[in-house]
Amino acid sequence: MFSKDITIEELIEKFPGAIPILNNYGVKCFICGEPTWGTVEESAKEKGMTDEKIDEVMKELNDAYSQK
Predict the structure, then answer these.
(1) Are 25 and 53 in contact (CB under 8 A)?
(2) Residue 2 pLDDT more than 70?
(3) Tell me, what's the pLDDT at 26?
(4) What does the alpha-carbon distance between residue 1 and residue 47 come to, in Å, rounded to a whole number?
C-alpha cells in the first residue's frame, strides 16, 4: 500500500502504472521533464487538491497497484 508521503520518484519506480492515474488528476510535472522532488501529497497540494481528493487519488493508486 502506498501512502501520500511517498515520493513521486519512488512511486513511479515501484509502479509505473501510476503515471496515467496521476495525469488524470493533473499531476504531470514528471512528464514535462521538470524534476519532481516531493511527495504525492506535496505535488497534489501544489495542484490545489484537497485532502479528500488526495485520499481519492491514493485509493485509486492502491486499487490499481493491487490489481496489477
Answers:
(1) yes
(2) yes
(3) 86
(4) 23
